[in-house]
Each structure stands twice: as C-alpha cells, then as structure tokens.
C-alpha cells in the first residue's frame, strides 16, 4: 500500500513536468513556424528594416485663396432717437403699438392741449391789440407830417408821434412772437416721430404727468445699419489707407444663428488713431437692411476682405501646428526621413486648413500625426496621407498575420497541454495495474 502511494505521488510531478515541456515545445514550434524557415523556399525570413517611429505626413497644399480676417462686432443703428416731450402736461393718448414700424411725422403721444390752446388764444389777442395800436400810431404820424409841412405843429410833437409809432410797432412784433411761441407749444402737445424706423415700447403710460426730462420711448432706423468692430494694427495698415481714400473694403457679417457670412456691406469708417492700451482701431461698416432682419445690438461675426486680396497661398492641417512659447512651428520631413524643426508664420483658416505665410515651401512634407513621437533631427517612418484627411481616422489596423500568429500560438499551447495529459494518464493506469488499487 505504501508502494502504491509512493508511485502515485511520483507520477503526478512527472506528469506536470511533461505537460510544461510539451507546452514549451509547442510554443517554440509556433514561433519557429512564424519566424523560422520558410517551408516553401527554405530561406530564413528577413526581419523588418530598422527605422524611426511611424508617423503620418502630408504634402503642403498650394492653391489660390481669398485672404480675409474675422472679428467680433455689434450692430448699431444709423439713426437712434430718444423721444422726449417738449412741453409739460398729462399724456392723453398713445397712438402706436410697441415694436411697430413708424414713419417720420407720425403722432406717437398726445399731451393735454387745452392749457396750450388757451395760451395761444390769449397770445393771439394780445398780438392783435398791439397791431391795432401800431396802426393808429402810423396814421397819426401821417397826419403829423402834413401838419408839420403847414407849420401847424411843432417839430417836437412830430418827433414824439414818430417815436410812439416805433415803440408800438415793436410791441406788436413782440406780441406776435409770443403768439407764435404759444402756437409752437400747442403743436408740441402732439409728440411725433422724427425719423422712419421701429418704435420701442411706451416708457410712460397714459395719464402720467411728464416734462422735458422724461423719455417716452425710442425709435431706431432700419433701412440701413452699422456693424462696428475693433480691428488690429495689421488690419489698419492693410485697409485703413484705402478706406480714407474712398476705396472701402468689402465686409460680410453673419449672425449667431446663420452659417457663413450672408450679409454684405462696405467699410464706411476707420478711426483716425489706434487705442494704445489695446492696440486696436475702431472700424464700422454699412449694410443694407431692407427686410429688417438686422437689429441694433445683435452680436455679429465680421469678415473683412481687402480690395486686392486674392493670391496663391500654402495651406496645412491644424493638427501639424505646434506651439513653442511665443511662436508656432511644424516638423518637416527631409530627404533622409528625418524630422526638421521649422518655425512658421500663420494666417487665416480656409476650408479647414491654415494658411502659412512664411516658413514652408511648396512640395514639402510635414508631420500631421504622431507628433509626440517626433524629435528634431531624429529618423521617422512617414506614412503619406492627404493634407485635408483627419490623421486619427487613418490610423492603420493591426496586420491580419499577427492575429493569426497569436491565435496559432494559443491553439498550439492547448494541443501541447492535451498531449501532456495523455502520458500522465497512461502512467497512472500502469501503476494501478501493478498494485490493483487506486487512491481516490
């Protein structure tokens, strides 16, 4: 019994050792199949050539572009009026709907006209009385002239009548002026719109007492509108002189809910100096607004183009651009497939690519993906892709051969383990036959 236990205990380590040996042999066989001799030719497979890390590279694009600049701006009304009363009184009527369009001369508010009508009537009567007195003095002066010719009155009496006429005539003109002022105040009781445009809401409602300091509402013009924005120094040097000479640049704007820049106008104003604190200059464009879609105060994306701005340019993918403190750079692939550090000066974005103003030449290849694996002067393995293709989407999938090899290795290991189990089972059966017993 002791011998049976001893033989069984020795058989199990031996079976495990044989299983491990079979697994190692199978793995080595699989590796030999993949990397050893070619069964068809009998030649040893060559290892891949040594090289730098794989990266995606693209040839610099050259094409004709219209160079523009983009800014953020605000729409402003060309004419904007705060409606205030010119006389004090109670509001008796409001003749408009908030937000409606009004024309020049439309009556918006009515102030109680009765006190002003009474004052106008009084001033009219006073002016009539003064004119009557002046007319009488004129007749008396005419008589005095005849009497003076006949030497019937003294010169002194004639002079007094002439002076009285001048005084009464002045009083008549003063009374007439007061009458005209009273009529003017009476007309001011009807508050009219001074421009064509869109009216706001009534700030003061019916029945309130107002004076000249109150703001009743406001009216803004709509047929044309300003787009104001702050340009930089480079923009001023490019378009400022032409604008001052009467050659305005083309300006296009787009609202927050619009694609592109559908509204076109002309640069109408460039300020005469730059703000030294911000380095910007105030600019303003005029746009047509016949449909009234542009409203003062709206945010606008402004695109400014010069008068002569169509030229050939080099374009690269945004992913190829790196930043080194205060400058931008790219990695150029030289003839020896080595990475070359190259500072670049960038321009605007065109169709998803970035304009390069200086630093690159047509036909050069630059690294567009895998920049973290690139060092200046180090060798690389470029995979050429199109410049406008997303490099991340073009990442290569693992080769099918490697997957097959991996699976073959797994299958070989399983087969080796199965083969290793068979000798162990055979030895165990031999031990049982000799002893006639089996340990459970």
Highlighted features:
440 residues, six-stranded antiparallel beta barrel, conserved putative lor/sdh protein from methanococcus maripaludis s2 fold, disordered C terminus, disordered N terminus, 5 helices, alpha+beta, 32% strand, OB fold (Dihydrolipoamide Acetyltransferase, E2P)
Structure, explained:
The structure is a single chain. The chain has 440 residues and is an alpha+beta fold. The protein has 4 domains: 2-38 and 400-435; 55-64 and 312-394, conserved putative lor/sdh protein from methanococcus maripaludis s2 fold, CATH 2.40.420.20; 84-218, RNA polymerase II/Efflux pump adaptor protein, barrel-sandwich hybrid domain (OB fold (Dihydrolipoamide Acetyltransferase, E2P)); 219-310, Elongation Factor Tu (Ef-tu), domain 3 (Beta Barrel), CATH 2.40.30. It is 34% helix and 32% strand. The protein contains 5 helices and 21 strands. Strands 2-11-14-13-12-15 form a 6-stranded antiparallel beta barrel. A 4-stranded antiparallel beta sheet has the order 3-10-8-5, with no helix packed on it. A 4-stranded antiparallel beta sheet has the order 7-6-4-9, with no helix packed on it. Helix 1 (2-35) runs antiparallel to helix 5 (400-435) and helix 2 (114-149) runs antiparallel to helix 3 (155-187). The longest helix has 36 residues, at 114-149. It is elongated and about 135 Å long.
Short description:
The chain has about 450 residues and is α+β, with helices and mostly antiparallel strands. It has helices at about 1-35, 115-150, 155-185, 235-245, 400-435, and strands at about 55-60, 60-75, 80-85, 90-95, 100, 105-110, 190, 195-200, 210, 215-220, 225-230, 250-255, 265-270, 280-290, 300-315, 320-325, 325-335, 340-350, 355-360, 365-370, 380-385.
């Amino acid at each position: 019994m002791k011998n049976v236990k001893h033989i069984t205990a020795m058989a199990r380590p031996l079976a495990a050792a044989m299983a491990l040996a079979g697994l190692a042999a199978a793995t080595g066989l699989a590796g030999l199949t993949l990397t050893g001799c070619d069964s068809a030719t009998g030649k040893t497979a060559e290892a891949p050539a040594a090289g730098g890390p794989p990266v995606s590279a693209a040839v610099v694009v050259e094409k004709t572009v219209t160079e523009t600049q983009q800014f953020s701006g605000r729409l402003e009304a060309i004419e904007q009026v705060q409606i205030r009363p010119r006389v004090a009184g109670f509001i008796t009527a409001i003749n408009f709907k908030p937000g409606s369009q009004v024309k020049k001369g439309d009556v918006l508010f009515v102030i109680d006209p009765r006190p002003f009508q009474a004052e106008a009537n009084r001033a009219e009567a006073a002016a009539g009385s003064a004119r009557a007195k002046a007319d009488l003095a004129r007749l008396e002066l005419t008589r005095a002239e005849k009497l003076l010719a006949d030497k019937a009155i003294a010169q002194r009496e004639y002079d007094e009548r002439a002076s009285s006429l001048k005084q009464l005539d002045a009083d008549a003109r003063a009374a007439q002026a007061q009458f005209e002022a009273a009529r003017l105040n009476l007309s001011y009781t009807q508050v009219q719109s001074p421009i064509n445009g869109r009216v706001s809401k009534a700030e003061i409602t019916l029945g309130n007492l107002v004076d000249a300091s109150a703001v009743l509402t406001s009216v803004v013009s709509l047929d044309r509108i300003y787009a104001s924005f702050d340009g930089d120094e480079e923009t001023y040097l490019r378009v400022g002189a032409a604008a001052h000479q009467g050659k305005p640049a083309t300006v296009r704007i787009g609202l927050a809910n619009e694609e592109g820049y559908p509204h076109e106008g002309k640069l109408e104003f460039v300020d005469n100096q730059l703000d030294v604190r911000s380095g910007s200059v105030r600019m303003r464009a005029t746009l047509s607004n016949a449909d009234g879609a542009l409203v003062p105060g709206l945010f606008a994306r402004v695109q400014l183009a010069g008068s002569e701005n169509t030229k050939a340019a080099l374009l690269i993918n945004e992913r190829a651009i790196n930043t080194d403190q205060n400058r931008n750079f790219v990695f150029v692939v030289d003839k020896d497939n080595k990475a070359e550090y190259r500072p670049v000066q960038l321009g605007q974005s065109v169709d998803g690519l970035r304009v390069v103003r200086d630093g690159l030449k047509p036909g050069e290849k630059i690294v567009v993906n895998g920049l973290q694996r690139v060092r200046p002067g180090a060798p690389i393995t470029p995979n050429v892709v199109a410049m406008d293709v997303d490099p991340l989407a073009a990442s290569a999938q693992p080769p099918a051969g490697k997957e097959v090899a991996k699976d073959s290795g797994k299958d070989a290991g399983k087969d080796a383990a199965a083969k290793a189990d068979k000798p162990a089972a055979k030895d165990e059966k031999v031990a049982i036959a000799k002893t006639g017993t089996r340990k459970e």
